[in-house]
């Protein structure tokens, strides 16, 4: 049975990480570990997180907590790669929740996964009390953008150790990594299983703008767009962000009219 590591990066996340931890704790997969990488929180995050140690021990899930300053989320993710001992890793943000108690088992049972470098599924985007299922795209779509949220992607640990996330990117190092792997011919495998409830309520317009700009730079770097296309899209970003800012000011009943009410 293949081993799976789940990593959650935290910083002052006492109000959001508990539900994430609980969703890992109830998993029924027999060969997994859970690591919290904390950026030296100044609230009671570490005390609360460490209170789960005995419960993880009872479930025979190796549970590790590490707290020290880092230079951002991708630096913290990279640090985790040398503290885990598993075949695959899933990065689950504080506030995000695995869909049910057998999510990991449904992904990893009955297939010869060592053949694959990257395994990914579907996800639910939510902003309480609204939710919508999102189907992930084909790897061929990586030339255009991310094919799903990174919290629905399991990656070979050995692959990330050889080629860690580029911490020069603040918001799109995951896109840089997966586009690079796709162009290098690494094997992607899609499983029609929803992996995570992905919380979209905390996405700021400033972060969205940085993400858009970084993804354009990445596509230009790998030759997926021309200089002309890059310059044209750069000009469009401010209008895209303005539109998103206007939409974000609308009531949730309007913004999420096509979403369902959360029932979980």
In short, what is this structure?
The protein has 264 residues and is an alpha/beta fold.
Structural overview:
Helix 8 (205-221) packs antiparallel against helix 9 (227-248). The chain has helices at residues 17-25, 45-50, 53-58, 73-80, 103-108, 157-162, 173-183, 205-221, 227-248, 252-255, and strands at 4-10, 32-38, 62-67, 88-91, 97-98, 118-127, 130-134, 153-156, 188-199, 260-261. The model has no long low-confidence stretch (mean pLDDT 90). It has 10 helices and 10 strands. It starts with a strand and ends with a strand. Strand 6 (118-127) and strand 7 form a beta hairpin. Strands 1, 2, 3, 4, 5, 6, 7, 8, 9 and 10 form a 10-stranded mixed beta sheet that branches. With 264 residues, the chain is α/β, with parallel strands linked by helices. 36% of the residues lie in helices and 22% in strands. The protein has a single domain (4-202), classed as Alpha-Beta Complex (Spore Coat Polysaccharide Biosynthesis Protein SpsA, Chain A).
Uncertain regions: pLDDT < 50 for 5+ in a row?
A: none
Radius of gyration: 18 Å
Q: Any guess at the CATH architecture?
A: Alpha-Beta Complex
The CATH top-level class label = Alpha Beta
What is the fold named in CATH at topology level? Spore Coat Polysaccharide Biosynthesis Protein SpsA, Chain A
- Number of DSSP-assigned strands: 10
Shape: globular
- End-to-end CA span: 29 Å
What count of structural domains? 1
């Amino acid at each position: 049975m293949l081993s799976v590591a789940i990593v959650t990066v935290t910083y002052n996340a006492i109000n959001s990480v508990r539900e994430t931890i609980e969703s890992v704790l109830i998993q029924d997969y027999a060969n997994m570990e859970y690591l919290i990488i904390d950026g030296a929180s100044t609230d009671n995050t570490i005390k609360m997180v460490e209170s789960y140690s005995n419960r993880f021990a009872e479930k025979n899930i190796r549970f590790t907590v590490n707290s020290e300053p880092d230079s951002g989320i991708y630096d913290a993710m990279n640090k985790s790669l040398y503290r885990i001992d598993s075949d695959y890793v899933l990065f689950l943000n504080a506030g995000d929740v695995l869909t049910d108690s057998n999510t990991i088992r449904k992904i990893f049972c009955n297939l010869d996964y060592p053949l694959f470098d990257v395994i990914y599924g579907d996800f639910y985007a939510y902003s309480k009390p609204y939710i919508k299922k999102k189907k992930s795209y084909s790897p061929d779509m990586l030339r255009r953008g991310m094919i799903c949220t990174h919290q629905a992607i399991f990656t070979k640990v050995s692959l990330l150790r050889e080629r860690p996330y580029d911490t020069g990117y603040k918001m799109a190092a995951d896109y840089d990594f997966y586009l690079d792997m796709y162009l290098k011919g690494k094997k992607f495998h899609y499983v029609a299983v929803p992996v995570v409830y992905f919380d979209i309520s905390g996405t700021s317009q400033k972060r969205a703008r940085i993400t858009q700009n970084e993804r354009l730079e990445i596509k230009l770097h790998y030759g997926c767009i021309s200089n002309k296309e890059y310059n044209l899209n750069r000009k469009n970003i401010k209008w895209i962000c303005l539109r998103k800012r206007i939409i974000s000011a609308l009531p949730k009943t309007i913004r999420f009219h096509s979403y369902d009410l959360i029932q979980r």
